[in-house]
Amino acid sequence: MSGVARRTVVAAGGAGLAAALTACGGGTNAEGDTGTGGTDGAPEGPLAKTGDIPVGGGKVLAGKGIVITQPKAGEFKAFSSKCTHAGCAVSEVKDGTIVCPCHQSRFDISDGSVKGGPATASLPPEPIEVKGEDISFG
Ligand code: FES
């Protein structure tokens, strides 16, 4: 009788171990989620293609908080798209300037300096890297 009882205890122990292993499986899933978080790094891929940026103009990438310009053919610059006047997002690149829609401050596409409007400080430059046709954060 006592032998049977001992086997029962062992079997129960085995079931407990299986439960513990299942719990570990859950831990692996949590790591998988972390991997998904790493996918958030994907936007660090190309911001734009060089062909998207007009010579003598530029493009505002609203979702990235950056404006990329091409003052001269093959010369790319990038600036923060946050206006230094009151923090609005600049909205367009026009006539060689980056324009803020809130109070019409304008910034030079070649160095971000103020060309007009109430802003008194230049748009801060953003580091970018051009590799082939891809423009990425530098
Ligand atoms: S916030 Fe840009 S001009 Fe005022």
What does this structure look like?
This protein is of the alpha+beta class. The protein has a domain of 90 residues: Rieske Iron-sulfur Protein. The chain is 28% helix and 29% strand. The protein contains one helix and ten strands. The radius of gyration is 28 Å and the shape is globular. The protein starts with a helix and ends with a strand. Bound molecules: FE2/S2 (inorganic) cluster.
Secondary structure tally: strands: 10
Broad CATH class of the domain at 48-137: Mainly Beta
Largest sheet: 4 strands, antiparallel
How would you name the CATH homologous superfamily of the domain at 48-137? Rieske [2Fe-2S] iron-sulphur domain
Helicity, as a percent range? 25-40%
Please report the number of helical segments.
1
Question: Can you give me a brief rundown of this structure?
Answer:
The protein is α+β, with helices and mostly antiparallel strands. The protein is built from 1 helix and 10 strands; from the N terminus they run αββββββββββ.
